[in-house]
Amino acid sequence: MGKRLGSLFLLASLPSSLMAQADPVPVQIAAEAPNGEQVQIRLAFKKSIQVEAVGLPKRFTDGTAASGWVTYEHLSPEAKHWVLESVFPDDEWADDGIRHRVRWPELESVWLMASLFSGHGQNYDQLQQANPGNPEKLRKGDVWVIPRNLLSIDLGGVVRGVVDRSQPEDDLDDEAKVAAYRALLAFGEDRQGRYASYHLRKGEALYSSVVMRYTDRVEPKDVTDIALEIAKRSGIADVRGIQPGQLVKIPVKYLADPFQPEGSRALKEERDIREEVRRTPHISAGPKLRGVRIVLDAGHGGVDTGAIAGDVWESDYVYDIAMRVRRILEQDTEATVSSTIRYPTFGFSVRDNIVRPTRSAEILTTPPFANDGDSPNAVSVHLRWVLANDLFASFARKGDVKKTLFISFHADALHPSARGTMVYVPGAAGVPASFTLSPSRGKGVSEMKRGGRVVFTDKERLQSEARSRLFAEGLLKALKSGQIPVHDDRPIRNIIHRAGKNFIPAVIRYSSAATKILVEVANLTNEDDAVNIKDPDFRERYAEALVKGIRAYYRL
């Protein structure tokens, strides 16, 4: 989960426990520009550096702002050099790089340093590896070395944006990518038991390229704990000082199903699913999606804001994306579209400006269920699939059950090195043969009669995962085509590992839809993702790409 919420306007509507964690006060200094003018420079938490346009030499900007404040990225190379020397006067600039001395620990971060000095915050892994002895929590006076090979071109280095960490597997589809990653493992055994060994490649980090890829763990604490255990097992003293070629040992007990040893039940189940995917036929509905029944579920809502990081929270932003998807589907297709949740204040409309969490939301059961905190969140979660199943049951009497689709929209708060969309599908092994929701959780809604009980055969569970994987694959292709970031390594997963537990989210675990996914739009703790999801243009492009993915799945 995130730690802070940004503005006083937003904080006024939040619980006191969140209000106590307000952002640090920005720092503003006056510096003399080369033309002799006194210019104000502002450093704000998670907002980088801004410079007052008044008084700046014309050559210092790219012309995007003649007045007001100019953001760091719109400054010329000369101006960036001047600004950094003004804000951080104790830094040492040399031919081989920069020795940066932390001056404002409450405002600075490793991500900010990477953004300012290398051109992109996503390079923070490389910056940490260049400073293995420094703690990630900054302290005043700490010295961080930014070597020349990490400096941006604007500062006399060689980096253009993100340091190239591409690998041969990046352009492969999901099955081929998993097979390629598996081929990089070798199995062995020592006094502590069986392990899979892996040699780190250039640009790879233990957190993202080993733990998140091979163990399916993405929660910050889980990732950190397992990374430290792997480092100890592998004789690595500092996880940030690992060099390319380092052998790491991953305990077999942590390996995700696709990477388990030969002969294991988990690996057999994985291969059974892949075989089912290959023999699953595509479903034809034409470009207008005639005869397709779609239910859209925006996660959380009401008193439940979901994940929070900085000045962005999950509920309202994913609701807006879901409403944009709904609008496009209703305008451009013949699909029948419903939502599980509605914000009474806004209805099903879209919003460009989202200024505070919406405190009122209702699940659209009969009668509606207000997500007001009087009942546990689990009630709201269960009523979503109960409602959707009731809608699908009604559709099944006259329509093709294979043309039913359920999409639940969410946003993560993961390890900050994770970026972009991830998609969860219902793993066949984790879906029960039958399940009946307790009447006490059904809250007396009429949809319980048809939607509160599910029964699945082994074949249905296998086909459900296969269809959902096919849809997820096409969706990710559509997102990439729309320049939407997608999670590196393995963006399609069929189970969640969290705090020692393995589970499938209830909304897709008990869904009767032929195809169902839970899409994590973005990782709110990744600053690029947070900027994206706050941008209404991004949310519109996301919705457009998602609808293209739906069309591609129900192709001719």
Can you offer a commentary on this structure?
With 556 residues, this protein is α+β, with helices and mostly antiparallel strands. The chain folds into four domains: 1-77, no CATH class; 88-163, no CATH class; 170-273, no CATH class; 288-337 and 373-553, Zn-dependent exopeptidases (Aminopeptidase), CATH 3.40.630. The protein contains 17 helices and 25 strands. A six-stranded mixed β-sheet has the order 14-11-18-25-19-22, with helices on both faces. The protein has a four-stranded antiparallel β-sheet with strand order 1-2-3-4, with helices on one face. Strand 2 and strand 3 form a beta hairpin. The radius of gyration is 25 Å and the shape is globular. The two termini are 42 Å apart.
Any idea of the CATH class of the largest domain? Alpha Beta
Structural class: alpha+beta
Record field, number of beta strands: 25
Distance between the termini: 42 Å
Any low-confidence stretches, pLDDT <50, length ≥5?
1-21
Mean pLDDT: 89
CATH superfamily of the largest domain: Zn-dependent exopeptidases
Q: Tell me the Rg in angstroms.
A: 25 Å
The count of domains is 4
Find the CATH topology of the largest domain.
Aminopeptidase
Strand content: 15-25%
Shape: globular
Number of helices: 17
**Fraction of residues in helix:** 25-40%
Task: State the CATH architecture of the largest domain.
Answer: 3-Layer(aba) Sandwich
Largest sheet: 6 strands, mixed
Spatial strand arrangement across the major sheet: 14-11-18-25-19-22
